[in-house]
Amino acid sequence: MHNQIHTIKKEKVLTGDRATGQLHLGHFVGSLQQRVALQNDYEQTILVADLQGLTDNGHNPHKVSSNILNVVADYLAVGIDPQKTTICLQSAIPALSELTMYYSNLVSVARLQRNPTVKNEIAGKSFGNSIPTGFLTYPISQAADITAFRATLIPVGDDQLPMIEQTNEIVRKLNHVAQDNILVECRPLLSKVPRLPSTDGKSKMSKSMGNCILLSSGAKDISKAVKSMYTDPNHLAVEDPGKVEGNVVFTYLDAFHPDLAYVNDLKIRYQKGGLGDGTTKKILEECLQETLMPIRERREKFISDKAQLIEILRIGSEKSQDESNQVLGSVKRAFGLNLFQ
Amino acid sequence: MHNQIHTIKKEKVLTGDRATGQLHLGHFVGSLQQRVALQNDYEQTILVADLQGLTDNGHNPHKVSSNILNVVADYLAVGIDPQKTTICLQSAIPALSELTMYYSNLVSVARLQRNPTVKNEIAGKSFGNSIPTGFLTYPISQAADITAFRATLIPVGDDQLPMIEQTNEIVRKLNHVAQDNILVECRPLLSKVPRLPSTDGKSKMSKSMGNCILLSSGAKDISKAVKSMYTDPNHLAVEDPGKVEGNVVFTYLDAFHPDLAYVNDLKIRYQKGGLGDGTTKKILEECLQETLMPIRERREKFISDKAQLIEILRIGSEKSQDESNQVLGSVKRAFGLNLFQ
């Protein structure tokens, strides 16, 4: 009885990932660890965003379809527990598409074109004059996702704040149409962890660029990735003083090494001169190997049982269908389209 | 057995109306009469397009919700038979929204902005800088409607040809992604009947402009509408020769009077001089009263039994759900998103 009451009062958190690739250390540091913690105190839903993945892969859908179960295996491997967290598949929840249709009547094209996140993303892609409609409009689809689960707390990076703003604008407009507070506004949960750089210290992490370490990366790949990591290009001899800022090895040590004092000590020695990159890389590699080995082993077990992964997604998606159909029902009533209800 | 085979081979026709108002004589002449004929030789679906109606009424949804049953009553009143024609409600068919999401990844924003029909419609509305996203993207939603029912014959006015083109582009792109002909292209069935002018001979027919005769218009309203009809402004005295071109009374006589030879004779007399507008209007009024009385009476009966109208829509929508879910299944398979199938 007590548990029941507690469950009802838990705040709802929604996160998700575009299913366009395996998850890597950037995801681990930036969001996965937080989700593992959140699932104990919040009612958490994680959306495998295959539809959103298609918005810039419409002509290459295999990139999405082949990664859905990879992403689920990644979740389970890091400790996301399907007993505590609902893991669901966007394309399996029709209400998300239906809500998108309703909301798209409340958002102008100009408003979408002003969205800073989408603007930046479009600039970073090679769409030319062919921006897919689904890509320009995906903030509406995200608003559908957030509101469909009545999520009020959305863990995001600060580059995603315009998405929260757009969602809340839609919520207010819909509530105005409904003359009732049928949807709830959400707020961001900003990550305190800085974004993890790619191993080359420059570009965005991407498997094809070979500048990231996947949760599934083998021991050899991890070793190779650490050895090629960007450090301080002016730190030529061991005796030379080295720079810690922008040195990817130290950024990763900050993110992954359990002993902060020890890392601090290493930094002082490196800055003075006398500590070689070979040594710092060896320390980092050991630490990453230790972090990733159990994750990789669990992941291998999960990915080898695809039927189980599908079943987890199916159960989560069915639960999500029920939740989102209720919200869709309210929205349809708001528009007076409840003839059959 | 013979009937069964015949049914399977029937070609599929899709038409529909935005549920934003009662249907009027323009609809009757332009499409309703044709649909009554088509239902005997084709497998016909009529979509009550409430979602499309919302694309420019998102903040005024009552205009849509209050007209859904009006439109269904109009259909039944003119002789569309729900035993022969499937009448369904767009918002009750989730696959239409889901297909729209998939297709929107295959159409660029620039392509939508070039659509001549939408461009003209936007120019005719007072959106200013706030074109609703749903309005710009509605050709994608129409493509979803057409393909969801595997419709191959689409009765349209020539202003709607760009919609057919857009649909077939999507069909080809989807089939290319699928590497299989899962969707079928459609072709237009162009109306041979010229567009009926409004009673003032100028603007588009609209209830608020008071320049159209509704299928539900009462005898007095019909009489008033005919009396105020635009004729030949230079035909001042009965003896003067009158112009038939652009004379709305004669256009309506062409459209509604059963005796073509008689109307032809009237035209000759009018052009010569000696036939007054009072007389031609009296002839037209008699003919319209005769046409509309039985329609109005049937309509009154239908609209008084809302439960029956809802039931007709419900049955048609359920049938349409089954059909469209099959197409959605194929499209999801084409994108590799058939984990649970």
Explain what the structure shows.
Chain A has 341 residues and is mainly alpha-helical. The first copy, chain A, folds into 2 domains: 2-196 and 305-334, HUPs (Rossmann fold); 219-300, Tyrosyl-Transfer RNA Synthetase (Orthogonal Bundle), CATH 1.10.240.10. In chain A, 55% of the residues lie in helices and 8% in strands. In chain A, the strands form 2 sheets. In chain A, strands 1-2-3 form a 3-stranded parallel β-sheet. The longest helix of chain A has 29 residues, at 306-334. Chain A is elongated and about 80 Å long. The model of chain A is unreliable at 1-7 (pLDDT under 50). Chains A and B meet through helix 3, helix 4, helix 6, helix 7 and helix 9 of A and helix 3, helix 4, helix 6, helix 7 and helix 9 of B.
Strands of chain A, total number: 5
Oligomer: homodimer
CATH C-level label of the largest domain in chain A = Alpha Beta
**Strand line-up across the major sheet of chain A:** 1-2-3
CATH architecture assignment of the largest domain in chain A: 3-Layer(aba) Sandwich
Count of structural domains of chain A: 2
Secondary-structure element order of chain A, N to C: HEHEHHHEHHHHHEHEHHHHH
General form of chain A: elongated
Rg of chain A, alpha carbons: 22 Å
**Mean pLDDT metric of chain A:** 95
Question: CATH homologous superfamily name of the largest domain in chain A?
Answer: HUPs
Q: What is the end-to-end distance of chain A?
A: 32 Å
Largest sheet: number of strands, sense, barrel closure of chain A: 3 strands, parallel
Most extensive chain-chain interface: A-B, 59 and 60 residues
Helix count, DSSP H or I runs of 4 or more residues of chain A: 16
CATH topology of the largest domain in chain A: Rossmann fold
